[in-house]
Every structure is written in C-alpha cells, then in structure tokens.
User: Which sequence fits this backbone?
C-alpha cells in the first residue's frame, strides 16, 4: 500500500482519501494540492520549511506513509469485533488464588462492587492492557476465547474500555453539535451529520431536561453531560467495554441508559453500590483484597425486589419534580410509599 | 544499562508518570537513576529522593535547555554506569515546543496531558512527533469523547508512536509503560549516537547578552516576521 501512495500525485490522493489533508494541515503546510507525488512534493520544500517542520525529509515521508496506513485501518474498521472478554483468575494481595474464569459477553451488565481500594482499578488496568499473567495480579485476559496478539496490546485502535467517570469535565469550548461532530470525525465514519443528530436525540431521551444542538457543552448540567456522554459512548465510541462509575439518580434516566448501551452491544461494567443499579445488573463481581472474591448472579428474589425499589424510586422522582416546580409536599406521603 | 529520554511540556505529569513506572520496576528489583533537567529551579528531585531513587539535577540557567541537555547527557550516562543502574531516565521539560532531546536508537517518551487542548499534539515539534511512546495523562479529568479525540489527534501528529494513557495519581497504565522501558536496548555509552533532529538554532547578538532593541543591534542567525506593508 505504501509504494503507490508515494508516487501518485497528491491532488489525486487527497481526492480519494480526504483524511490525508489533515496530515498536511497539522504540519502547517500549504499548497499541497499539487500534481506532484508526495516524494516530489517533499523534495521541493525549502530547507527552511523542513527545519520548521521539526522533521527531516526522510522522517516526513515515513510519517506520511505511516499516517496513510493507520488512518486507512481506522477508516476501514479492519479490527476484529470483540464479542467476549474472559478474565482468568490470578491472585489477590495476600497471594491467594482467585480460582475463576469469568466470561463477559456483549450485552452483559456486570456490576463491580467492593470498598474503595479493594482493587477495582487493578482489575480495569488488567483488562485495559490485556494482561497475560505478567501483571502483579497474574491474571490473564482472553478476547473472543483466545489469547490476543501481542501487537494488539497497548494500541489506541484497540482501546478496550470507555470510562464514564462521575467527575468528568468538558474542557473544550464548543457547542454540543461541534463537540460531537469533532468526535465523529475522529472516528472517520461516513455519515457524520446523521450520527451526530442521533447522538443528540438519544441524549435528550436520557436527560431529564432537554438541551439543543447549540448549547455550549460547558453549560450542560451534570445530568445532561452524563446523558450526552452515555449516548456518545453508545453510538460513537469504538471501545467494546463501557465502565460506568455510579449513575446518580438525578437528571438522567438510568434504566434507558443501560438499555441503550446493551442495545449497542456494549459490555457494561458498572461500579456501584446503589441497590437499584446493582440489581439491574445480571451479575455482580465482588472485589476484596485486590482479588475477585466471588461472582453473584442476580436471582429471582432480587429481581422482584428490584421492582419494588423502582417503585419507590419513581415516587422519589415525582417528589423531586414537585420540589423543582415550586410545589409543597405538605400532605401525608405514607400512601405514596404504601406504608 | 538502559537509557530513556522522557520529555514533555511543563506540568504535564512527567515526574508522576516516571515515579509510577519506577514503582512497578522496583518490584522486580530494578536499579534506577534519574536525571532531572530544568531551567531555573526544580523541586522534583525531592520527590525522587523520597522514594530512594538517586537523582542528579541539571539546571540550564540562561542557556537553551536543549543545548544544555545535549552537552551533558554523555556525562549523565557515565554517571549512571558508575552507579550500576539498570535504567537511567532523563527527564526534561520542553519549554518552547520545539525541543527535541530524543536520541536515535534510544527509547524516547513524550508526556502530554488532556487538559492542554486538542490542538496541542499538532503544536509540539520533534519532542512529540519523533517520540516512540506518547504518554497521555490526566485522562480521568476530561470526558470520554474528549479523551478519544485527543488520542486521535496525537496519533495523527505521530502515527508511528505507541500511545498510552497513564494516570499519574492511581498509576493505571504505568505497568504497561514500565514494560516498554524494560524492553529497551542496553547501551555502554553514547559515542557516535546522534540526535533525532537538530536542536532549536540560536546564534545571534541576543544570545551573547545584547539587550538593546533595534535593527542595528540584531546580528547573526535571525528570522523576521512577514509584514507585507513594510516591503
């Protein structure tokens, strides 16, 4: 692929692969729409220009070739789809064996429970770097039931976990539309506009209060930001696993959020101690002493308890909305809770 | 001994990242030394000393930090060999975005942080564009979408580099980095080694102490902005 790319005139190459333009723009180069091949173009740049680029001619050409290949890979989505991830147990901080092999499949909602410092970040780090019995925990991670290739480890294109943490901020000063467009463009998808629209529609379905395309991201409320990031991760992120750090019960529809992620074939890992969220999960991974101490499956009794908890939750939301709209809660609420 | 050059804009998290990687390597009883290059003052040596990592500080003062680096790195390696380190880490702040303390065939790491804005990877010169590994820090502070865009921009700026996310506080990702540091080549000295790119040039009257402003006082290697109205 690299040889013809260097000999075809740049004008033609850019027409065929528009993303090549970004390579030249990012270097601050102009006048690259020429009938010269990349090699010829680089050759005719002045020594002063080369000096300013911070790369010599050879490095420039080799970066161009690499850029072309990497971007083509991303655009073609040649990477294998992740259908399942298996954790083969290692040992906890005291050296005790975990003795387990746990497989998570797309559409699964797994809750991760355990006190702060119990080893949750270690577990995530193991998954993220596709540990092969070479991390302090001795765990091994399999993808689609087999050992992943060494070259898959540590690369951006194969980033496995999208993390939706509670204390995230937007630092870009953009509108919602500009922001999601920027993300969509970086994924090099074809129908950017359409996808951006659907992310925003979807986010509005999850958010308690609606927001528009031209709301600056920095003025979104906590719930709205959360809803936007959940919709964005579901529809635009390439990572097969989504890690959610507690979804607070305000401003975002938790049930719909999880439904969306499951529908988009994500593996959902949820770090939570909220009984409703935890019981919404199919399984709970209990972390203790740096190890996975047990896997709890949500049972029938728990599922029916969940329904009751959700009713209480619905009542709490109604009361919250009453407060929001200036009403008084000066009546006997025992009935509301069936007490 | 192995050598690695770590560079990155000020306050991007170089020291925290290095400390977390050292923590992983120490568990395998690796003997590590650090050289901290800075301009005026640094307090990072205290952080290294706290965890018993031998550290030497080099302050460039009124010299270009890059030129100071290249004229001292040979001696640093000699010191490292005398101390019998398994790994010597050189840490230097890239203050002008044009710095390029990377050496051919020596593992080069560039540390940047997500808070710096998505155009930062484009703006940084050889320090990032010619690095082997780009470490991105402070990812936990920004949104997932911004993180992904930032990674993509870094990839565009240096498509050859391996890009890793390291959290300087929790250490998530530091193990992966430590593995890469371990895998690098052994060296006996830096004889015949070359820089990956020329350093920022400077040889003008102001380098030699001139303070007067004006056409008549500008001499040597100069570059003028292009104002069409003046020509």
Assistant:
């Amino acid at each position: 692929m690299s040889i013809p790319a260097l000999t075809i005139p740049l004008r033609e190459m850019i027409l065929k692969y528009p993303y090549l333009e970004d390579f030249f723009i990012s270097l601050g180069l102009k006048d690259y729409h020429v009938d010269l091949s990349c090699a010829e173009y680089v050759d005719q740049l002045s020594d002063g220009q080369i000096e300013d680029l911070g790369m010599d001619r050879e490095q420039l050409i080799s970066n161009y070739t690499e850029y072309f290949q990497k971007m083509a890979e991303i655009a073609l989505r040649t990477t294998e789809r992740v259908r399942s991830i298996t954790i083969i147990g290692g040992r906890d901080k005291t050296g005790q064996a975990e003795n387990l092999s746990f497989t998570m499949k797309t559409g699964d909602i797994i809750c991760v429970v355990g006190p702060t410092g119990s080893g949750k970040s270690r577990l995530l780090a193991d998954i993220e770097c596709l540990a092969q019995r070479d991390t302090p925990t001795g765990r091994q991670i399999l993808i689609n039931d087999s050992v992943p290739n060494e070259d898959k480890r540590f690369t951006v294109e194969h980033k496995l976990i999208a993390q939706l943490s509670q204390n995230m901020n937007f630092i870009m000063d953009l509108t919602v539309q500009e922001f999601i467009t920027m993300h969509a463009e970086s994924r090099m998808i074809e129908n950017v506009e359409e996808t951006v629209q659907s992310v925003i529609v979807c986010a509005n379905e999850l958010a308690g209060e609606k927001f528009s395309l031209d709301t600056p991201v920095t003025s979104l409320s906590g719930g709205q930001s959360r809803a936007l990031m959940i919709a964005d991760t579901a529809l635009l992120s390439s990572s097969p696993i989504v890690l959610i750090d507690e979804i607070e019960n305000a401003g975002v529809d938790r049930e719909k959020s999880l439904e969306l992620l499951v529908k988009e074939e994500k593996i959902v890992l949820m770090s939570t101690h909220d009984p409703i969220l935890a019981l919404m999960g199919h399984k709970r991974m209990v972390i203790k002493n740096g190890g996975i101490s047990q896997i709890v499956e949500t049972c029938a009794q728990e599922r029916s308890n969940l329904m009751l908890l959700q009713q209480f939750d619905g009542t709490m939301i109604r009361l919250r909305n009453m407060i929001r709209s200036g009403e008084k809660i000066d009546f006997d609420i025992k009935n509301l809770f069936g007490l | 001994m192995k050598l690695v050059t770590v560079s990155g804009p000020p306050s991007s998290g170089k020291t925290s990242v290095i400390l977390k990687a050292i923590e992983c390597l120490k568990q395998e009883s690796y003997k590590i030394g650090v050289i901290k290059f800075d301009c005026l003052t640094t307090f990072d040596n205290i952080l290294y000393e706290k965890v018993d990592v031998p550290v030497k500080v080099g302050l460039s003062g009124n010299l270009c930090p890059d030129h100071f680096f290249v004229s001292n790195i040979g001696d640093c390696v000699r010191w490292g060999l005398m101390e019998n380190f398994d790994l010597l880490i050189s840490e230097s702040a890239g203050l002008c975005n044009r710095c390029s303390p990377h050496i051919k065939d020596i593992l080069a790491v560039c540390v940047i942080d997500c808070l710096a804005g998505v155009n930062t990877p484009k703006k940084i010169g050889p320090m990032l564009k010619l690095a082997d590994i780009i470490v991105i820090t402070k990812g936990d502070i920004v949104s997932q979408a911004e993180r992904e865009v930032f990674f993509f921009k870094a990839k565009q700026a240096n498509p050859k580099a391996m890009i890793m996310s390291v959290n300087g506080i929790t250490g998530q990702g530091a193990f992966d980095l430590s593995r890469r540091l371990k895998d690098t080549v052994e060296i006996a000295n830096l004889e015949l080694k070359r820089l990956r790119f020329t350093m920022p040039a400077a040889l003008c009257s102001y380098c030699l102490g001139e303070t007067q402003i004006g056409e008549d006082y500008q001499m040597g290697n100069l570059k003028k902005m292009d104002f069409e109205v003046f020509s």
In short: Chain A touches chain B through 52 residues (CB under 8 Å). Residues 300-324 of chain A form the longest helix (25 residues). Residues 222 and 251 of chain A are 7 Å apart (CA to CA).
